[in-house]
Design goal:
- By secondary structure, the chain is an alpha/beta fold.
- It folds into two domains: 156 residues, NAD(P)-binding Rossmann-like Domain (Rossmann fold); 164 residues, Dihydrodipicolinate Reductase, domain 2 (2-Layer Sandwich).
- The chain is 27% helix and 22% strand.
- It has ten helices and 13 strands.
- The strands form two sheets. It has a seven-stranded mixed β-sheet with strand order 8-9-7-10-13-12-11. A six-stranded parallel β-sheet has the order 3-2-1-4-5-6, with helices on one face.
- Helix 1 packs across helix 10 and helix 6 packs parallel to helix 8.
- The chain is globular.
- The chain binds NADPH dihydro-nicotinamide-adenine-dinucleotide phosphate (NDP) and N-acetyl-L-glutamyl 5-phosphate.
- NADPH dihydro-nicotinamide-adenine-dinucleotide phosphate binds next to helix 1 and helix 10.
Length: 342
Amino acid sequence: MGIRTAVAGASGYAGGELLRILAGHPEFEIGALTAGSNAGTELGAHQPHLRSLAGRVLAETTPDTLAGHDVVFLALPHGQSGPLAAELGDDVLVIDCGADHRLTDPASWERFYGTPHAGSWPYGLPELPGGRDALRGAKRVAVPGCYPTAVSLALFPALAAGLAEPDVVVVAASGTSGAGRSLKPHLLGSEVMGSVSAYAVGGSHRHTPEMVQNLSAAAGEPVTVSFTPTLAPMSRGILATCTAKARTGATAAALRAAYAGAYADEPFLGLLPEGRWPATAMTLGANTVLVQVVLDEAADRVIAVAAVDNLAKGTAGGAVQCANLALGLPEELGLTTIGVSP
Ligand SMILES: NC(=O)C1=CN([C@@H]2O[C@H](COP(=O)(O)OP(=O)(O)OC[C@H]3O[C@@H](n4cnc5c(N)ncnc54)[C@H](OP(=O)(O)O)[C@@H]3O)[C@@H](O)[C@H]2O)C=CC1
Ligand SMILES: CC(=O)N[C@@H](CCC(=O)OP(=O)(O)O)C(=O)O
């Protein structure tokens, strides 16, 4: 018998991607699938691409329906996971794809989310310095936001090596699935198609403190982040362009060596050959973050560009990678680095 695994939020985008990965994983046995308003309906009505699970009926999301599993993945809206996880046993591995337990600073949480802080859990980005140690044997894991995954992995080598000033500017484009599948006025098809638009400009995006948290830890000093997200007319993918003033003495060779060293043993991080730039299409369906870095000598800035599939390594793939680590399984089990092209 496999590792009994439940997915809460199975009718959503993150839940669907979790199930796509779990269905091909050799160790997990898919147990309860739950939803909110769609409880009582069949999974196939919401996730018709998941053929082998189509007839499964979605249960209500309660501690009772999630009981009796070894692992519970939560893919629910913000604010739902704290109270629910408190009702699940300490022996159950809970992997939260939502934001509730990502931030360590309660003041930052309250400022950006406007509710009391539910407390922090081990942070699910194994590739950050020290990241794996916190996850091995963990019983609770907070999966990062999709933008912070791309940005943190794009910039930590430059900051950790002292090659970039701790004051970064990020402009990132995201596909619309990043916002989930519930109806949102700014995601009307007629307004998204054929247009790229900025939103949450001026430091208001709730992923900003998460980037600050990760990059400050990597740099060993406080880092400021100016983050501008943009919405692109595509379903999946994030392309993050991250820049920072180069530190005195930083050279192109030192920069490339820092990234090559930091990514050398990372199965899911790819530094592209010089001159090749990341594109979201290269990462679709894969648990990868693809990066390129250069020194813009005229502007004296470090430029790192990262591509990620927001639903794969940006959520569900990263979640399964963390579950593997927490359970003592091989970290790469059930996860692919092979994308889809063109
Ligand atoms: N989309 C992405 O790229 C990323 C998402 N995440 C996080 O993953 C989580 C899920 O996101 P996503 O899949 O995009 O969102 P969706 O809106 O696509 O799905 C939300 C899921 O939660 C269920 N749900 C909604 N309200 C309740 C409730 N009150 N009680 C129980 N279940 C409920 C929905 O069920 P029903 O169908 O019945 O309404 C659905 O299954 C969020 O916390 C999000 O921040 C993290 C990183 C990236
Ligand atoms: C395009 C789009 O709207 N993206 C979402 C990102 C949501 C996400 O991935 O993160 P959480 O888990 O923190 O919700 C946004 O900017 O709010």
